[in-house]
Amino acid sequence: MLNAGFIIIASFGYIGLLFAIAYYGDKRADSGRGIINNPYIYSLSIAVYATSWTFYGSVGRAAAGGLIFITIYLGPTLMFVAWWFLLQKILRISKANGITSIADFIASRYGKSTVIGGLVTLIAVVGITPYISLQLKALSTSLTVLLEYPAIVMPSAEIGQPVVSFTAFLVAMAMAVFAILFGTRHLDPSEHHEGVVAAIAFESIVKLIAFVAVGIFVTFGLYDGFGDLFMKASANPDIKKLFAISPSSDYTQWVTLTILSMMAILCLPRQFHITIVENVGTHHLSKAVWMFPLYLLLINIFVLPIAVAGLLQFPSGSVDPDTFVLTLPMSTQNEGLALLAFIGGLSAATGMVIISAIALSTMICNEVLMPALLRMSWLRLNERGDLTSLVLNLRRFSCVFIMLLSYGYFVFIGESYTLVTIGLLSFAAAAQFAPVIIGGIFWKGATAKGAFAGLVLGFAVWIYTLLLPSFALSGWLPESFITEGPFGIALLKPYEFLGLSGLDNLSNSLFWSMVLNIGAYIGVSLSSEQSAIERIQAAIFVDAAEKYSGTAGRSNLWQGSAAVDDLRDLLYRFVGPYRTELAFKDHARRRGLELKELMAVDAEFVGVAERLLAGAIGSASARVLVASVVKGDIVSLDEVLQILDETSEVIEHSHRLEQKSHELEVASDNLRQANEQLKELDRLKDDFLSTISHELRTPLTSIRSFGEILFDKPDIEPSQRRQFLGVIISESERLTRLINQILDLAKMEAGSMDWEMSEVDAGEAIREALAAMSSLISDKSINLELMLPENLPHVYADRDRLIQVVINLLSNAVKFSNGPEPTLNITAEADGDALLVRVADNGPGIPDGVGEIIFEKFQQVGDPLTNKPKGTGLGLPISRQIVEHFGGKIWFEKAARGADFRFTLPFTHTVQVAE
Amino acid sequence: MIEKFSERYAALLILAALLFNPPIMSIFNSTELFIGVPILYLYLFCAWALIIGLNAYLAAKLSAARDSITTPNQSADSHD
């Protein structure tokens, strides 16, 4: 069954299936029912990280170095734990700014610089091409091995059979066609390729199933489970050695590889593309950060068992460990499993090739070709019609270019290297992006010059310490370049650069490239100035917190306006009429503009157009193009910044003025109120004075007239004299009382009364008041009904004043007790939280409609003209002041007969609670 | 609520970095077998699974916290 024809048909059948899935995915997306908008597909698509390097190379690495292979997968796990700080922010920035690739991201951060974009693209292409050719090599090796079935023969150093080489070429071209068909179908401003992502997710499932199937077969088919396999392996000291890692040298390498793979998962162009650019929902990330590491864990469980089993099965060392996944099923004539393993390896390779081709071609087109073509004014690109097809054709051309370049690298250099070494070469190249990315999103001061210097130096060290030695190993350069250094200068030996020995060549390269990269990045950034656009972009990237989500996190630097038609023409040429009109209408609706009536559009509208364009051709090119249609002056960025500074100062100033004027308004309001109060008080004072003088004059007049009578008539009868003198005394007493009460009242109202507050036994105070009044009461033979329970709770009051209140009420009652059988009723009882005291008589009572007036000053019941006043008119007002000061209430109840005054005093404990 | 996750993820990151690297890893660096499996191999996969599990746990808590923010009316009863 496993003959050449069948294998090749199966391979192309599988690739055909990929086309079908991608086609289906695109169709679904076109009809608005995309199938990739969930975290599972997203996580599986990120698993494009597991390439044929994982599929074949991990086993090879494990067979040589034991568990150290696992660092390549622990690094991404660490980076995905750190997603909250890095990936999340990068994703947010990218979505807000329509980032199309890692080169676009870095270029955008450093002022939309075409130079930086081009440099990143160059590094990516030079660094990733070997990685793509590595996939082709894995493919051709596995095919060669499989074709020899049932014999197990390793491919020779030269490219073996022409059919293999030709198949590798065909697969490379099929991948180019796939990338062209589904990756450059149309210019999508969001740069989403749903069909491609669906196919990649499918490939991830296939390679996982294939690898795990081989692992289960080896562990439980060839051996009796893990225990049996490892037990047998323990018998061989050479294999047993693989169970641990050698502490002397491998710990350094362990840490180096972990850090390197952390940076790789972030910086490899294909990982950036699939994780950031192809992301269709930012919330998928929080699930993918554990699902993707779980995928890596699952695909790695059987790596060590397969490696150990391979070493046990092929003890002679004639079989390359890189092929164990394939050769173990072959050696036991398990044809179906061998084919599945081959298809798994094919899926691992094709997935990586497709995404890399799309990511790199986007970068080449947007960051290198378009800016270059736009600068060649003689091409008159700006005057050409539809440019969509030009952009798409440039990408298609780039795809083919990359595949040919990779194939060329594979043919000329690929055979001399093991899978792992080439993979790490690419990892180290991609890692050069890490400082400018991480620095770029956390450090506002990083400048384009600093980024340029860091990238150039890091890249140069990478070339010198990894790429050139790999050429030397392939025979393109003399071997002495590695062993003795160029021109025999030992200090410049690439693997022991600057005399640093004791590190493996990867750690050595990573150390020196990072030292120089980060050093130059920081050093040059500190000693150079940012241009205005850099400063703005830096702020947007670094402050890309929640506040910048949505529209705020975008740079809008356009001043002035553009004609709608110019803008429309420009966009038609790059993103097509449909998407242009959609975006215009959407924006116009959001701002309540009528698109048809619009002749010229403002800066915000131009910003929308720029972002739409940036999504298609990258931010650097978009900027150049939009600048060509914006009319009048685009105010230079420095001017914009200056205007901003000035404006914010003016705003600050006016804000302060506003605050001051508000304060003034409040103050004048308060003054007006105070004035009103004063006027009112003045009026009250006048009333009071006139009333008081009247009240004082009445007893004075009476004293004076009786005094005059006594003076004028010395012979007046003694009995009459006595009577007159009695009047004078009682009127004087009244006058004294009046003056005392006026003083009391004045003090109380002014708040300058000296209160001696303490806990008072109210019952005792009432008895004391009764005792003071007892002679009056018995004089008028008033019947006293007293209800005063013992042990009433204490009240908080001034004892003397309390007695004064009771006396006031009692004397009122006594005064008006002049009917038959006069009765005075005094009770005190607890009423809720307060003591209720009641003083009632059965005198004439209070006429209807008097109400509260009796509690006002100088108000007496009865007609003041006909009745001689019996009191001062101040007793009740004073009582009210006192009771209210104690926190109680005084009022009178309507009674059938007589007057019924009541007041309350809160008990001590409730006062304390209230306080 | 959401701010708290910065500290949680930082703690998890530190834990993962400790578990995945020497010197903690080197404690288990032995060629001996434990229940039939090499000790280091067993340790690394257990630690790895633990970190993935904790990450999944945080992701679940995070999406619950986000839901409670987007639907504040319902969350008023169930959250403090």
What does this structure look like?
The complex is a heterodimer of chains A (915) and B (80). Chain A has 915 residues and is mainly alpha-helical. Chain A has 4 domains: 4-103 and 116-181 and 192-276 and 288-362 and 400-434, Amino acid/polyamine transporter I (Up-down Bundle), CATH 1.20.1740; 556-635, no CATH class; 639-744, Signal transduction histidine kinase, dimerisation/phosphotransfer (DHp) domain (Helix Hairpins); 756-914, Histidine kinase-like ATPase, C-terminal domain (Heat Shock Protein 90, 2-Layer Sandwich), CATH 3.30.565. Chain A has 33 helices and 9 strands. In chain A, the strands form 3 sheets. Chain A has a 5-stranded mixed β-sheet. Chain A has a two-stranded antiparallel ribbon with strand order 1-2. In chain A, helix 7 packs across helix 8 (162-183), helix 9 packs across helix 16 (324-331) and helix 16 (324-331) packs antiparallel against helix 17 (335-375). The two termini of chain A are 98 Å apart. Chain B has one domain. Chain B contains 4 helices and 2 strands; from the N terminus they run H-H-E-E-H-H. In chain B, a hairpin with a 2-residue loop joins strand 1 and strand 2. The radius of gyration of chain B is 18 Å and the shape is elongated. The relative contact order of chain B is 0.14. The model of chain B is unreliable at 73-80 (pLDDT under 50). The chains are: A mainly alpha (915), B mainly alpha (80). The A-B interface holds A 67, 70, 74, 77-78, 80-85, 225-228, 230-231, 234, 240-241, 243-245, 247, 251, 254-255, 258, 283, 286-287, 289-290, 293-294, 297, 301, 304 and B 5-6, 9-10, 12-13, 16-17, 20-22, 25-26, 29-33, 35-41, 44-45, 48-49, 51-53, 55-56, 59, 62-63, 66.
